[in-house]
Structures are given as structure tokens and as C-alpha cells.
Amino acid sequence: MSQTLQAAPATRAPSDPGENRRLVVISVDAMSVVDVPFARTLPNLSRVLAGGWGSAEAIYPTVTYPNHTSQTTARTAAGHGIYANEIVQPGVRRPDWFWDARAITSPTLFDLAAAKGLTTASVGWPVTGWSPSIDIAVPEIWDPAGLDQTRAVLRDAASERGRAYVDRHAGEIGWDTKHRFGRFNTAVAVDMIGSDRPDVLFVHLVDVDSARHTTGRFTPEVREAFERVDGWIGEILDALGAAGLAEDTNVAVVSDHGHVEVGRCFRANHLLVQEGLIRLDEQGEVASWDAWVHGCGLTGQLHLHPEAGQSTRERVLALVETWVEDPEIPVAALLGREVMREEYGYDGPFVGVLEGTSGTNFQNLWEGRSLYGRFDPDYTFLLSQHGHLPEQDIQAVFAMVGPDIADGVRFARCTVPDEAATFAHLLGLEFPEADGEPVTRVRA
Question: Which InterPro entries does UniProt cross-reference here (predicted)?
């Protein structure tokens, strides 16, 4: 559903799209429309919300990497190829994520901008490692082994010009039980604006999402995360001002999904072990498999081994149908690949998608037991999650302010691919194929 950005008075003519304009896109991961009233009380998010804003429906699945790729390609997952956060690696306890930009199967905004001679930069943006077209890339990537290993792999995945920023700011990467990139990403973005003055800059800030996963949707910790992120956004906005770029820069704040409270954690692969469809070695690790459920937040992708025959396929599908019919197993439906592609623009190397009952988080693991309830004494998992069907919960935020955005307007509801098409429009670029359209109309 598309709408237009109204031009503010004394801005460029619509016939000269992108002339002398810059673009900064800041992702506040997991910010939703219900957060807007509180965000308006914060000094810097309120500056962006004073322009135009509205809701944006995520693509399926409503997880970070597919949606952030849609924000740079204007495609759904079937078009850009990033069908989950993690790559499917059956038996691997911590699968690799889709860090490598070369996995994207459609042109990105960075590709289009590079072809036009614009300087592009990204900081912490998903699926930008080893990018062939981003001039200054400092991607989101980590090594669970620790901080030193994370600094090394981050430097390796960065572009040649990006490595200088990694070297200058690596000391600002935080680490407690996992990586903390917010302070680092902000410092790098501010440095880039002052030093390289890129025409296009994408920045990813994840603190709100992390707080929601671990403490719930609306908690004091989430409020504190918003306050931190607001301060970082202020640093980026102030850096644009200090560099003399603010008047010619359109700034967007986007997000990728809402959150749903988790009521249970489901390990479908534990049931597949019991059925002999996954076989373990003496150490309890996966030795071989015929079927695998790849957790994708509140849904699970059903995979068959590439060498599985028709009889195995029929057996697995019949088994999953018994799960759907069993009230003790939290699977509401098996949605076939063809249905997902037609209705949601979703495709990948799976035979179908398991839609969990409300608040069911899918895990890849296979040991322990198949189901953990929120009030079980040994429940130690996420309290809030996403990955559900896009229409099922509160929507993401799309806000913009700048010389080509009228102040005080409300965008009608759009989609995440529409955001990328809008960014291209503002830069005078056009995707050769897109599932989104520029937001061109607004309502007061």
C-alpha cells in the first residue's frame, strides 16, 4: 500500500529526485507504533517523529535479517533470498547468521547508489559483511567465542575503508554474556559523518530488541534501552549538524517487527529424535537426519534432507499433521511453501512452515524435552519474541524528517519493502524489480 512523501516548502522540485540529497537510515530494532507516545517524550526521537511517521507491516518472517534486507532491496524474502536470521545447519548448536551480503539475490540500494557514484556506508546493518558495493561497511557480525574473536571477524568482514573505523573504535564494543554494539555503532557512525561524509548511511541499534527479549515487552529495562538509543540518535543528528549536512539530509527511523509475549518454548527436533527422524551419536550430538525444524522465532521451517525420498516426505508430513491435531503440541498449522510464497512472498529451502500457537517460541535444540512452559522452574528462555505472521501483532514504525518531508504528517500504513522504495525515490534511484512502492501520499 503506497503513499507519498509531501515535499516541505522551499525544497527540491519533485522532478529532480535525489539532487544534492543525503540519506541517513537508523534502525531502532523492535520499536513498534505503541512506543511512539513515549518516544515523543524523548529529545531526539521526537525530532524525527515531528516530520512524518506511520506504521509499516513487516515481511514474513518478522525477524531481523529478512526485514533489514527488505529495507535495502524493496523485496520480500522470496526476492532477496534471506529467509531467516540464521542459516540452516542441522545439528549445529549455534548456526551462523546471514552475515554475508553476497547471499542477497537481488540488487540493494547500495548497489544502485554505487552505480550512480554516491558514497555509501553501513554500521551494524544486517547482511552487509563482505559487501561488494558498500564503500565503508562496518557490518553486524560476531563470534560467540568472545570479544577478541568478535573484533577479528568484524574487521575481516568490514570493507577496506571500514576497517579503519573498526580499529579506531573496537574498544567501544561491549561484552557481558554477549556482544554489545550500540555504543560502538554510534561512535563509528558519528566518525563516518565527520570524516567521510557519506551520501547514504544505514545504522542499526538493537538495544530495545535485546531488552524486550530478556525482560518482556514493556518493562523498566525497555524504557532504559529507549533512553540510551535516543541519546545515540541525538549524537548522529548532532554530527550531521556539525558537519553542515543537516539541511540536505533526509533522516529515517525504521524498525523491523513488534514483539509477542512468550508462553512456552518448543523443541520440535526433540520429537523428531523420538521418531527416529534425527539420529544422535554417543555424545548426544546429531549424527544424521531426515527432517529438521529450523526455529525462526515464533515459527519453525520444516526441512527435509536433500536425499530424503517420497516415503520419508510423506511420513514427515503425516507426523506434523498429528502435531497440529494434538492439543498438547503447540503447533497451530503447517503452511506449505507454495502458500507462503503466494500469500507472503516467502520462500526458501523448506517444505513448509510450522505456525505455533500464540506465544510459542521455536528452538533448534533437540535434547531435554520438547516443551518448556513459562512457569516451569527450569524455564530460562526468552520472555518476548517475534517471527509470527506479520498481521498478528503490533506493527513496526516508519518515521522521516528532512528537507523533502513535510512536518507533522501521518503516513498511511505501508510495508517494509515500501520503505526501501521510498529511500530509492528520495535519492533519485529505482529498483529494477520491487515488491514495494515509494510512500508518496500522506494524511494530516
Answer: Alkaline_phosphatase_core_sf, Phosphodiest/P_Trfase
